[in-house]
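// run 5 | inverse folding | seed 20
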C-alpha cells in the first residue's frame, strides 16, 4: 500500500487521489469486463493534463510514498468535479460510479461533523451510510479475493520445479540461469559437480532438497541417498525477479 503525503488540502472537503481513482477504475473493470486491462498510475497521470488542462493543475498536486522502495512520487488529489471528469474520460458509467462514491463520502463527512448521538434521525443516517460503505467494501473484497488466492498458490512451496522448467518459464537459457545463480551465490556445485542451494536460500524457501530413493551400490553393497535440488513456486517468483533485475540493469548500461 502506498502512503499519501500530507498536502495542503481542506480536511473538510471530500477528495480522491489519482491512486484511488486508478484502483477504483481497475476494480470496476475487474467486475464488468471479461479480460480487463489494468490501468497504470503513470498512464493516468499523463492523461490528466489532456482532460483538465494545465492551468488549474498545480492546486491538485500531491505526493505519495511508495512502500516498496520508500521513494516519493507525484500524484493528484481531486475534489468531486475533477474526479468525475477524469472518470468520465474513461466511461460515463465510471463517472456515475465515482460520483456516487464521493456523494456517499460527503454524506459520511457531513454526518461526522454534525452527528448527535441523542438524535434518532442522525443514528439512522449513520447506519445507512455505514451500510453503503459495507456493501462497497464487500464488493472490493470479492474483486481482490481471486487475486489473493492466486498469490497463495504462488507462495505454496508444495509445487516444485527443476531449473530447466524455471528457465523455460522465465525465457532464459538454462545454462545462463545456472551461471547467474552461481554468480549471485544462490547455488553452488558440490564435489560431485551436482548443483546445490546455499543454506540461506533453503531457509528462505526458495529451494528445497528432495531425497532420492535408496540406491544400493553394486560394487560395495553400500546404500546411498542423493539430494535433488528443486525450486519452490515462491522461489520461481524470486528467481524471475532476479533475472528481470539483471536484464533491466543491462538495458540501462546499454
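// decoded
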Amino acid at each position: 500500500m502506498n502512503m499519501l503525503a500530507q498536502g495542503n488540502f481542506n480536511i473538510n472537503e471530500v477528495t480522491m487521489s489519482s491512486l484511488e481513482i486508478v484502483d477504483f477504475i481497475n476494480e470496476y473493470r475487474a467486475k464488468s469486463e471479461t479480460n480487463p486491462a489494468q490501468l497504470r498510475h503513470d498512464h493516468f497521470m499523463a492523461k490528466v493534463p489532456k482532460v483538465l488542462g494545465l492551468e488549474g493543475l498545480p492546486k491538485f498536486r500531491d505526493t505519495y510514498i511508495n512502500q516498496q522502495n520508500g521513494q516519493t512520487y507525484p500524484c493528484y488529489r481531486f475534489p468531486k468535479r475533477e474526479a468525475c471528469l477524469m472518470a468520465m474520460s474513461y466511461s460515463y458509467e465510471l463517472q456515475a460510479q465515482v460520483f456516487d462514491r464521493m456523494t456517499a463520502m460527503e454524506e459520511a463527512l457531513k454526518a461526522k461533523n454534525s452527528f448527535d448521538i441523542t438524535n434518532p434521525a442522525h443514528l439512522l443516517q449513520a447506519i445507512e451510510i455505514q451500510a453503503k460503505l459495507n456493501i462497497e467494501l464487500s464488493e472490493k473484497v470479492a474483486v481482490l479475493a481471486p487475486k489473493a488466492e492466486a498469490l497463495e498458490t504462488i507462495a505454496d512451496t508444495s509445487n516444485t520445479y527443476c531449473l530447466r522448467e524455471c528457465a523455460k518459464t522465465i525465457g532464459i537459457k538454462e545454462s545462463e540461469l545456472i551461471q547467474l545463480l552461481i554468480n549471485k551465490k544462490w547455488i553452488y556445485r558440490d564435489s560431485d559437480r551436482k548443483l546445490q542451494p546455499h543454506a540461506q536460500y533453503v531457509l528462505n524457501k526458495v529451494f528445497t532438497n528432495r531425497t532420492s530413493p535408496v540406491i544400493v551400490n553394486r560394487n560395495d553393497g553400500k546404500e546411498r541417498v542423493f539430494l535433488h535440488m528443486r525450486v519452490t513456486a515462491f522461489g520461481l517468483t524470486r528467481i524471475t525477479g532476479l533475472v528481470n533485475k539483471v536484464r533491466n540493469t543491462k538495458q540501462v548500461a546499454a
